[in-house]
Amino acid sequence: MIDHHLRVHPSAETPPRTEQLAWKLAEISRSAAEVGADVAAMAVNRVIDNAAVAVASLRRRPVAVARSQALPHTAAPGAPGAPGASVFGADPLARVSPEWAAWANGTAVRELDFHDTFLAADYSHPGDNIPPLLAVAQHAGRTGADLLRGVVVAYEVHVALVKAVCLHRHRIDHVAHLSAATACGIGALLGLPVEVTYQAVQQAVHTTTATRQSRKGEISSWKAFAPAFAGKAAVEAVDRAMRGEGAPSPIYEGEDGFVAWMLDGPGASYTVRLPEPGEPPRAILETYTKEHSAEYQAQAVIDLARSLREKIDPSKVESVVLHTSHHTHNVIGSGSGDPQKYDPTASRETLDHSVAYIMAVALQDGAWHHERSYAPERAARPDTVRLWHAISTVEDPEWTRRYHDPDPAAKAFGGRAVVTLTDGTVVEEELAVADAHPRGARPFGRDGYVGKFRTLAEGVVAPADQDRFLAAAEGLAGLSASGLAGLFPAVDHRALAEADAVLPKGLF
User: Fold this and answer.
1) 320 and 395 share a domain?
2) Which of 59, 323, 359, 433 is the 20 to 30 A CA-CA neighbour of 293?
């Protein structure tokens, strides 16, 4: 790896393009390094993971809205391999413009907050790169091998940015890093010149920098739309750059640019670790998925609650204090200052960012379900509300240090629960990482991803069609251009179309 030093420059001292961060990121897309077998296998896992959470969300309103917005933007009807891209839940022969497929499919993947994650200086869901990359690969007639390279490059860029540059401190939404990574992934799968990808990265970052209010207070459906919007914007940025259009430049180093005015200011300095020329991409192996449909910091808490349930009676709990990291306390814990996180009428999006609610339900049920655990009647149960309101969080400096530990083998995303029972008994237990984490009690391997897909696809995708999808996904590197259509599990699109028809009409 090599260290790229990023700082703000006055306009009179603008560094050459080849020394700018956007150019260095674009160069990764042109790397000829071989993709290792373990990296390729993990990319397959994430394609399976994305499809699992997408098919489970097809009947949810934001996904139906995004799908209904996309379908009027037809590219060309016809056989597999025709121009345009497929949409989860639509007629298999339907093809829409790739930016709209990125929008619909990105929303389907993100809606349940149930796919992969990477946490470092900032936060991310690198799997959000896959929908726009798949859409462009289909539209451009590229192969599974091309898509595979695009995916691992996007992960490489995304992880590098998330490790180096914190957006959350300035309340900037994490999709600004996503759009840059997606632009680089598209550049890799299409084999674009560095100059073109460089301009696309800058356009994408410029147009997708937004505040984190989408994840604060009363969280709305925009949380699912935000990464889909970033993917759509990246596709459009690449299209403009391919046509010779430029971008605000330098987007990172400029005196009126991203770092100077959105992040740490004119005196800012960051070190971004990037692969050397020819170094194989491996960052995807540092990322991890979710076993439970909830914000990532809640993963270990759910597993911790399930373990505690074997030792205590939830009805006898007087209080629970979760000693945890700064992020968990301030983003999904009582340190957020959001009363909505303790509101039984809160939206699903808000509840999945309330660690107190999640811990209460997991303590009572000993399980977590992507639908039942969030049902309004579940949240309103009096015994749940009582337990929920008895749970609080505090920041523990040691858990914060462990959260930010640069060594992946030492990072921790959990906490220590101190449970006081009504008879005065105190029970303490801690868990550093979720059971499904690579260092957890039951790390997810291919069987875990396949099992997650089959569970979420039950009742949505017929068993034979599940088998067909899994065969296509596991053969990703050898898929032809027309074979990419196999990455969309067959569902009853007619039933979904009937459901979509009752949605209020918009412009399209």
Assistant:
1) yes
2) 323
